[in-house]
Amino acid sequence: MHVQLHRIVFELPDANYFTLRDLLFHFDKIDKIPQVRMNDKNLAIVWSNNLLGRVTYNRDDLTIQQRVVEALILCAHDIYNPKE
């Protein structure tokens, strides 16, 4: 899965690629702050519509979007080189 996500993300235009990278690493930092109480799943629920757009109001589609964003957050260090 990491390889496929890397391949898809790598095809983004540079501005989108670097913006997504910075945002995912920011989410990773937020997840590690105990006082915030926002884990990867909660961040994905909140941000999925903003990052992927709300194409439909179908609950199944929204769940898929949330899972994609959660996977991006969880795999960020494998998709991107943190020192880029």
Write the topology of this structure:
Layout: H1 2-10, H2 14-31, H3 40-52, H4 59-79
Helix pairs in contact: 1-4, 2-4, 3-4
Keywords:
84 residues; mainly alpha; 4 helices; globular
Task: Give a description of the structure.
Helix 1 (2-10) crosses helix 4 (59-79) and helix 2 crosses helix 4 (59-79). The model has no long low-confidence stretch (mean pLDDT 85). 73% of the residues lie in helices and 0% in strands. The chain contains four helices and no strands. By secondary structure, the protein is mostly helical. It is globular. The chain has one domain.
- How far apart are the termini? 21 Å
Low-confidence stretches: none
How many strands appear in the DSSP assignment?
A: 0
**Shape category:** globular
Give the quaternary arrangement of the chains.
Answer: single chain
Summarize the entry for a quick read.
The protein contains 4 helices and no strands. It has 84 residues and is an all-alpha fold.
